[in-house]
Amino acid sequence: MNITYQEEPNLSVDAFRDILMSCSLGTRRPIREPDRLEQMLKQADLIITARNGEQLVGVARALSDFTYCTYLSDLAVHDAYQRLGIGKELIRQTKLATGLAKLVLISAPQAVDYYPKIGMQHHAHCYFLENEQELI
User: Fold this and answer.
1) Which of 33, 97, 103, 134 is the most exposed place for a label (fewest CB within 10 A)?
2) CATH architecture for the domain at 3-134
3) Phi and psi at residue 10, in whole multiples of 5°?
4) pTM over 0.85, yes/no
């Protein structure tokens, strides 16, 4: 198996949806809303893909200022290609491409044990807001 990694800023919506659906991340992304997926891709600062030949087997989608902070919003690896180091390499390639910026992410529930195993530090203070009406 020869996995190649590259920046792929013009990744298609269909390819993005397919890789999301091929792993657990698809249940938490708007895979039935192609317009939102398209905006997710267009507004990303960095998209790195992993391919086995022509087959897309992984993607890292990040938002970054390339100097202080990079938010790794999506890390998706096809179920059939997990546990081969592809996710770790996508993280490494994202960090390399964003220079001094600290890389941060919010873990999927089933991946919380994965990130410490590859050397990432846990941060207990994360907050999110999905709807502005939830503000008190």
Assistant:
1) 134
2) 3-Layer(aba) Sandwich (3.40)
3) -105, 30
4) yes
